[in-house]
């Protein structure tokens, strides 16, 4: 029996006119209810159909893809383009549109150009290479935790633990001085906030690209043992391209893991039985636990944008060339047909089919690194601080509801 | 069970190595998938099928060879490696 990997799921066909939006849902939806759940508007759309028509903030319409199989299908099929310059491409905010049209990184490109650039980075995040980094990552986690303990509680776990760990790690790998972290973290927040006006996003992007471009120029003259140097010395890559790739790695390298670390900590503090499982976990169980946290929390809540390049059918729904689609990883990862009781956090679950890193050719390049960081950071935190607890009432916490990457703004803890 | 890989489709996510490390590796030179064994035994069948299902580039093909002692005829676990529902 063949179990070949035929991508032909979305079939060419569309004779029906594209329907008007079938819901009053306006994207991006307001977060509400439990901070770990996708906004209820997305969950209600998922309950209606895995593919629904909806309206964006700018009045345009697009498809909201919420089902697990449908999200996989779209992301694996390059007839759904990731190129933000194509007409009909759905943007979540004016700032996101600005970002993708100024200087698109390779996440907003299609193959073959996307593959050309991505493949310059693939050996940097090999599983074996990340495995070899584990002692260095453990040292970063231990040192960061030592500093947090020395400061004494209560502290904000976001600024004292969750954010420094992946920032230190990506700075080390990329070759960016960690002393500059306040600058790049601040600019990164502007880039990822859907409230940021277009000009503010342009300014933040320009200042980061100029910073990384200067760094690349210096490294071209005097290369060191890091990713940016290896990019900077290439003859087939302009300095601007190297800076753009470094920008992607810098932002993706710290924002995602930082928010996963803090939100995971909160989820575990709210579920003491699950936290106990993590404390008792050996290396294999700790890995499985992180997969379930990735599934349950799915911090890329905003939806991955694509635009159809031809008429297709998706799960029985006709999609026209030029239609925008937003692939909702968060609802896909709660799809009951794949994850029974998907709204429950269960660290014993085999969650490896989750889509938290996306799917298809754009799937997260740094996922081995993200996994290792999360496994080490969370296991170390909960084993070294068995009395870890919230230092404020949970009602006082606020969440990153307008950010492309979900998380908690601050997490005051003591131990 | 017979496994083959298509390096042209590989996007070096590392999912296969994490899922079935005795069957798949990544090249040190270019990061592309490398097959360590093309006929893994029955004990590895479930993990190999999962690796194929998780591969974001769909670079892994698994087929059940006729007469293969490890063949698991018709008992595919619905991993998604048989393609997506249309």
From TrEMBL, chain A:
Alphabetically sorted, this entry's keywords are: Heme, Iron, Metal-binding, Monooxygenase, Oxidoreductase
Tell me which domain of life the UniProt entry assigns to the organism this sequence originates from.
Bacteria
Q: Which PROSITE patterns match?
A: CYTOCHROME_P450
Note down the stretches annotated as region Disordered: 1-31
- Matching Gene3D superfamilies, A to Z? Cytochrome P450
The parts of the chain that form a coiled coil are none
Q: Which InterPro entries match?
A: Cyt_P450, Cyt_P450_B, Cyt_P450_CS, Cyt_P450_sf
> Which N-terminal residues, if any, form the signal peptide?
none
Family to which this protein belongs? Belongs to the cytochrome P450 family.
PANTHER family cross-referenced by the UniProt entry: CYTOCHROME P450 YJIB-RELATED, P450, PUTATIVE (EUROFUNG)-RELATED
The molecule here is called: Cytochrome P450
Organism of derivation: Kitasatospora kazusensis
Automatic annotation (TrEMBL), chain B:
What keywords were assigned to this record?
Answer: 3Fe-4S, Electron transport, Iron, Iron-sulfur, Metal-binding, Transport
Cofactor(s) this protein requires: [3Fe-4S] cluster
Quote any Pfam family the record assigns.
Fer4_13
Q: Which domain of life is it from?
A: Bacteria
Recorded hits in InterPro entries, A to Z, give: 3Fe4S_ferredoxin, Fe-S_cluster_ET
Query: Where are the annotated segments for Disordered?
Result: 64-86
Keyword Iron in record: yes
Has the keyword Phosphoprotein been applied to this entry?
Answer: no
- Mark out the compositionally biased spans (Low complexity): 70-79
SUPFAM superfamilies given for it? 4Fe-4S ferredoxins
Function text: Ferredoxins are iron-sulfur proteins that transfer electrons in a wide variety of metabolic reactions.
Q: This protein is called what?
A: Ferredoxin
Give the species: Kitasatospora kazusensis
